[in-house]
Specification:
Blueprint (H helix, E strand, L loop, with lengths): L6 E3 L1 H11 L14 H8 L2 E2 L9 H9 L7 H7 L4 E5 L11 E5 L3 H9 L6 H9 L1 H14 L2 E2 L21 H11 L3 E7 L2 E6 H4 L8 H16 L1 E3 L8 E5 L6 E3 L12 E3 L5 H4 L1 H8 L21 E5 L2 E11 L4 E9 L5 H17 L3 E3 L2
Parallel strand pairs: 1-9, 14-15
Antiparallel strand pairs: 2-4, 3-4, 5-7, 6-7, 8-10, 9-10, 11-12, 12-13, 13-14
Helix pairs in contact: 5-10
């Protein structure tokens, strides 16, 4: 298609398509806990950040789509119902924070195929894995004979220590397990808080026939676009319809089934890792929203709070809630709401209602400033 023939959509349409793709419209209020696997399949995954400043990211993101969800429903879906499983994605994942998360079990055939693709692991990590053939075999044997095992109980018998420019240096057991998780050989069977308990994938996951590799990668790209609705074309190849967004530079890709027609919005508190704003460049381009996760920023330099929750109002991002869960006091403490717009009475009431809903989900009471 020639450049002059590429369709242009409005900024409002682009935002509404993105919100709808993330299942954040008003009809989310009608979903029930049994819809969780379908929700995760649509989102592609629930990112795992177990930090409990406010709430673990997977639980909060699921609750935002299913307000009637109970906090333990997500973990039950992994450990009891086995409709979800913990997965570590390929290194070419476009957002690092989204590389590890909970996936729908129905996605297993194409995820297994991608995990077995040698390109799913960085070349340096692949070389380290090859140099640790004995360590690899010993980890699998220990899990086979003694598993499932907490990570701390797995012997560090590396032939060659892991080296990196970051904090992974000498984290031999963790790196071996995570690389084997990408390849589909081991899996996190359960978590005790933030501690992972590992087992052989063959003992935990159902047997599946892997998809053809080309089909798997295409599915990965199609599913990514479906969950975004509209995305920059960086990693999508020829998937989707090329479009332009009015007032925004560059070419975008639109999911073939996406439309803004009949959009009905709602107010929602989002996790800092919510897919709607996980691509910070897209967030600025489509919403003009200024935001950063300040969890690792020194307290004196924070603008909005360690784990500030963005506020969605229909197709707009309108503020941030600086909150913290105080388990000892049984309270969800809201220190401040940073508004990017002048809130009217409707928006103020809706934001208070969402804070109260989140507090109830966490078995806490809301403590407002």
């Amino acid at each position: 298609m020639a450049s002059s023939e590429i369709r242009t959509i409005t900024l409002e349409e682009a935002r509404r398509i993105a919100v709808r793709a993330q299942w954040l419209e008003a009809d989310s209020l009608e979903r029930e806990a049994g819809d969780l696997p379908e929700v995760v399949e649509q989102l592609t995954l629930l990112p795992l950040n177990p930090t409990d400043i406010v709430a673990p990211s997977a639980e909060q993101i699921a609750h935002t789509r299913i307000p009637s969800l109970v906090h333990d429903d997500v973990r039950r879906a992994v450990e009891v119902e086995q409709t979800l499983f913990e997965h570590l994605g390929p290194h070419r994942h476009p957002m690092e924070a989204w590389a590890i998360g909970l996936r729908a079990m129905t996605d297993l055939p194409w995820l297994v195929a991608i995990g077995r693709d040698p390109s799913s692991i960085h070349s340096s990590a692949s070389e380290w894995l090859d140099a640790n053939g004995g360590f690899h075999a010993r980890v699998l044997m220990q899990l086979r004979e003694e598993g499932p095992l907490p990570q701390a109980d797995i012997d560090d018998a590396a032939d060659v220590p892991f080296r990196s420019s970051g904090w992974n240096t000498d984290r031999n057991v963790a790196m071996m397990l995570e690389l084997l998780q990408i390849r589909g050989e081991v899996v996190v069977a359960e978590r005790h808080g933030t501690a992972r308990v590992w087992d052989l994938a063959a003992r935990v996951l159902p047997p599946v026939e892997p998809a053809r590799l080309d089909d798997a990668w295409r599915t990965w790209r199609e599913r990514w676009l479906r969950s975004c609705g509209i995305s920059r074309a960086t990693h999508l190849g020829d998937v989707g319809e090329p479009v332009r967004v009015e007032g925004v530079r560059g070419e975008w890709r639109l999911d073939p089934g996406a439309t803004a027609e009949g959009f009905a919005g709602r107010v929602a508190l989002l996790s800092p890792l919510d897919r709607l704003l996980a691509d910070r460049k897209r967030m600025v381009q489509l919403w003009g929203f200024e935001y950063a996760l300040e969890q690792y920023t020194p307290a004196a330099k924070r603008r909005w709070g360690a784990f500030a929750l963005p506020i969605l109002d229909g197709d707009r991002l309108v503020g941030k809630v600086d909150a913290k869960s105080d388990r000892d006091a049984g309270a969800l403490r809201v220190h401040r709401i940073h508004w990017d717009v002048e809130p009217d009475a409707r928006l103020l009431r809706a934001a208070d209602d969402e804070i109260a809903r989140l507090a109830a989900f966490l078995s806490l009471r809301p403590a407002m400033p």
